[in-house]
Amino acid sequence: MLQGIDGVGDSARELRQDMSAPEITLWQVLRYRPGGLKFRRQHPSGPYIADFYCHEARLVIEVDSEAHNRGDRPKRDASRDNWFADRGLTTLRIAATDIHKNIEGVTSHILTTAASRHTGEE
Fold it and tell me: Looking at the DSSP assignment, which residues form a beta bridge with residue 50?
């Protein structure tokens, strides 16, 4: 399982208390272990904090707001995705607007992706 480096765990705890509206909406679904998969929220991973993480599927889920399309964010996100990929993880980026418009479709997409990656480990 991935662990955070110094100080990242403290930041993750703070982020759990200050989740965005789309993150809260998605967590209201993922917390009940859809498809029998356990998801963690604001999970520390090396120098990063994954919005959501499923260890069994080695899947990181990132909720992206419009801000992720501006400035140096696309480059930073790509670097972060590569860091996870180097550790055998897949990053699934979900637009915040999609969560508000179609939570059922987003959940289905997450579960389909997770099921295709499920390792059978607990």
Answer: 43
Is pLDDT above 50 for 100?
Answer: yes
Using pLDDT thresholds of 50, 70 and 90, give the confidence band for residue 118: confident
Q: How many other CB atoms are there within 10 angstroms of residue 32's CB atom?
A: 8
Q: What is the pTM of this model?
A: 0.85
CATH for 8-102 is 3.40.960.10
Query: Strand, coil or helix: what is 43?
Result: strand
CB 110 within 8 A of CB 61: yes
Which tokens go with 2? Answer: 């991935």
- The radius of gyration of the chain from alpha carbons, rounded to an integer in Å, stands at 14
What is the predicted pLDDT for the residue at 73? 85
Cα angle for residues 118, 26, 74 (degrees, 5° grid): 80
